[in-house]
Design the sequence.
């Protein structure tokens, strides 16, 4: 996992301006850099876990003691609420990033009056992404708008070129559908956001396609999301949970 | 003033290795809130200030003393790069090993062994076979190997094969034959396999081969003879420094 972090860090350079660091924050940063000299740290904030800082490195979270001596990587639960704070934090970061991503960098397949929107990180050469897209009409009919974000994986050589070719077609949506049905679009090049959306995916800790995210940044497991009916049900449930007042700390 | 308080707390931590009663209660309640059926094996202060090392169902988790926060994952000591989550299992492993006496094992030992390892093994596991092919080599290097039959549920039928090995008159030969791919006619008899399986679970052993020293340190995974003797050598040299 540490290795994974390192690779991800080397891939990508998103850095928030470091604000004036207190001692603990500096110790936390130093600790990370002693383990991972190349790591690019996105954020360091005090964690809910007493005595720890939460450090975000490319969409992944670790916790470091204020003296910089120990590092925890895993899931942090708040016991009384049974909440996975780590997962919640990642979702929040993802949700904020998705809200900022302009429609001009996506391909949107939406019904007339969508009830829900999901964002799908997709790769032309990924079999499950193709399977998902085959049912795009059904998703739309179920009231779900789909925002596709092009995220060609390194494990699929040439997928980045295909993504660019989709983007550079006159009718992107039609080109995407054709590509997902196995059509070779040939090469087309133009100014495109693929490198940027890919970097965004890396920064959000997304490491597989399709990754399907709800508006709040929570990821929906693929078994559910691959079925339009199950996805709509999951989104209904999410909306119902949100409508209910939740006891907060 | 504050500094004094902190160092006093630290000092206390060293003295009281085990958790105070009310802490034990808070941690137990907290864990059971998240995992009602978890069986807690031990609760002890960890090296990390404020966190307790909790072993439950063969896994280490960390919790705050008030039972409010729980961390499941790795805990790296940054200076030594040691994963405390692994280290935290050593006691549980040692306790588990103590529950498996020699008469529940298959022992392959040289005349004057320098080292003894316990190896959790499954007849249908390829690396266990690879390991056993070189048993003479391990023995020649002074390593006594005590096998514990631990058929994994991912290998259907492996439990029957383990039982057959155990029920043969000459268990060691039967084991060697089975590891060479020979099919032995099934036999049944009273055997320790199920008992070992439940002990292994409290030790967090979830794969084979698993090589353990007598103090519960896990060395692998499959480790070739030359590397294994090296690891045992270096552990032996390290011992005096870590003895308490």
Sequence:
């Amino acid at each position: 996992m540490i290795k994974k972090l390192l690779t991800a860090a080397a891939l990508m350079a998103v850095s928030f301006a470091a604000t004036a660091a207190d001692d603990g924050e500096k110790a936390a940063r130093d600790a990370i850099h002693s383990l991972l000299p190349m790591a690019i740290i996105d954020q360091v904030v005090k964690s809910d876990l007493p005595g720890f800082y939460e450090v975000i490195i490319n969409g992944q979270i670790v916790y470091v003691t204020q003296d910089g001596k120990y590092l925890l990587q895993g899931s942090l639960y708040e016991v009384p609420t049974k909440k996975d704070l780590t997962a919640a934090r990642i979702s929040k970061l993802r949700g904020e990033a998705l809200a900022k991503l302009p429609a001009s960098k996506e391909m949107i397949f939406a019904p007339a009056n969508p009830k829900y929107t999901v964002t799908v990180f997709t790769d032309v050469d990924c079999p499950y992404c193709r399977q998902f897209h085959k049912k795009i009409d059904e998703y739309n009919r179920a009231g779900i708008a789909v925002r596709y974000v092009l995220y060609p994986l390194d494990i699929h050589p040439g997928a980045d070129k295909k993504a660019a070719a989709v983007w550079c077609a006159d009718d992107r949506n039609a080109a995407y559908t054709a590509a997902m049905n196995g059509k070779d679009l040939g090469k087309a090049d133009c100014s495109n956001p693929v490198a940027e959306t890919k970097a965004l995916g890396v920064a959000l800790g997304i490491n597989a396609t399709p990754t399907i995210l709800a508006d709040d940044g929570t990821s929906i497991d693929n078994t559910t999301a691959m079925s339009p009916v199950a996805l709509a049900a999951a989104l209904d449930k999410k909306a119902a949970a949100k409508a209910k007042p939740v006891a907060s700390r | 003033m504050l500094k004094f308080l902190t160092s006093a707390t630290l000092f206390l931590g060293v003295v009281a290795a085990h958790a105070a009663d009310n802490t034990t209660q808070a941690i137990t309640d907290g864990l059971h809130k998240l995992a009602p059926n978890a069986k807690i094996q031990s609760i002890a202060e960890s090296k990390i200030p404020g966190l307790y090392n909790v072993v439950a169902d063969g896994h280490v988790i960390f919790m705050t003393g008030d039972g409010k926060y729980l961390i499941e994952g790795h805990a790296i000591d940054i200076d030594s790069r040691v994963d405390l989550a692994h280290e935290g299992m050593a006691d549980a492993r040692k306790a588990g090993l103590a529950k498996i006496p020699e008469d529940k094992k298959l022992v392959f030992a040289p005349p004057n062994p320098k080292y003894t390892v316990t190896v959790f093994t499954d007849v249908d596991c390829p690396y266990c076979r690879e390991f056993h092919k070189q048993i003479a080599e391990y023995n020649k290097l002074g390593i006594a190997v005590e096998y514990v039959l631990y058929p994994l549920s991912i290998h259907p039928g492996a439990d029957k094969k383990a039982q057959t090995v155990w029920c043969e008159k000459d268990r060691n030969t039967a084991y060697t034959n089975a590891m060479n791919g020979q099919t032995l006619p099934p036999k049944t008899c009273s055997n320790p396999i199920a008992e070992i399986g439940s002990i292994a679970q409290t030790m967090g052993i979830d794969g084979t081969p698993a090589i353990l020293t007598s103090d519960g340190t896990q060395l692998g995974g499959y480790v070739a003879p030359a590397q294994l003797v090296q690891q045992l050598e270096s552990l032996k040299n390290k011992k005096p420094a870590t003895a308490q």
Observations:
- The first strand of chain B starts at residue 40 and ends at 45.
- Chain B touches chain A through 26 residues (CB under 8 Å).
- Chain B has ten helices and ten strands.
- Confidence is low (pLDDT under 50) at residues 1-16 of chain B.
